[in-house]
What we know:
alpha+beta, 68% helix
Amino acid sequence: MRGADFGRPHRHFWEGFGKVTSGLRVSLPGSAAGRCDDERVSRSRTMRAATLAGAGAGAWSAVLVLAVVVLIVLASWVAVPHGTSDLSDALRSGGLSFVVINGAPVHIATAWLTIPLLGLAFLPVVVVRWAVGRALRALDSSVDTMVGALIGTAVVYATMVGLVAWLASTPTAGSPPFRAAGWGAGVAIVGVLWATKAAAALRTSVADWPDGLRRTFRAAAIAVMTLVGASFVVLATAFVAGATTIIALYDSLHSGLVGSTLIFFLGLGWLPAMASWTWSWIVGSGFAVGVNTSVVPGDAHLGAVPAFPWLGALPSHAPFIGGLVFLLAVLAGALMLPALSKTGAAAVGQALSASLLVGVTGALVAWIGHGSIGPGRLGVAGPAVLSTGVHTFGYVALGSLTVVALRSATRAIRGQVASTTDDVPARVGTAA
């Protein structure tokens, strides 16, 4: 559905912002027909207009996402028995749910849930992207526009997320407002970058980079995409293998339709975190699901874990091919070869640099999936950040350097064979 079809109030809102931002662009002294000869003033004007437009888009996005989440929570509160809880409790739960889907940590009594539900953060990101795209229609697609929109949207959206966290928090349940605001800013930034097509602009600018730097980043991107794809494939295989356990856990909860739906979306939110666990498992560092537990390719030590159905995909013992799964990380490094230089020394430097970038990405992925999922021993879950980064760098570097060495050796052998073949007629002529 096109954005203009959402209703007359929405059209009036965006038309009003279009007039305001257009007015800012033409009302400055020294402008003629909406254009200014002074480049500095023109850039300042554009950024100011984009900042104001982004602020409006950030406010509108926060209100819309909050309204949707609160309505869903209220519908669930009405549909299921809620004991002694009243409407104010339901509204606070809706506010905390809004904070949580933006990735912020939350505590319930003494239990902390700090692993972000990035799978659900897709909703606010899409809303921010839509709102910013409509707000910036009257502006050009320059870097100044993107920067202004980033500032305006991130500040306003983050402030509103932090404010909701502060208002909805109680001594028994809540979220730190400043941490919530930080995660809200991250959601807003992703939405703005998507709306302004920053990725396409980056791909275009890559062509102007030095050849070595361009090859390094392309090689790293190939390895990262390979590992991400492998992580989701392995995770899907784990879900299929643990389907019986997952279904049994769902049945044991007796949560009904509403409860089962909420559990499903909670698992969907944690899906990126579980993919980060799989990444760390592939590279050999493994992950934990509680204190004194570990799941590594060659072994699995699990204690009592929460009766959360999606955790039924965890292996109760090491898979028979677990010891070879590191080859996926080596393969990711080997696939970088087409992006590397043809000369041996340059290719080695680019391979090591790209592997380092992939290792840093692996550490970031591990950080996303590391945190707390409950009280007591469940306060430690996910992969170790530094270990995952080091393992990722090691295996990717092994794969990339191996194929570079094989290519150099193959060329050397071909060169020797060619030189030997060329010498044969000369020797025959000398003998004659």
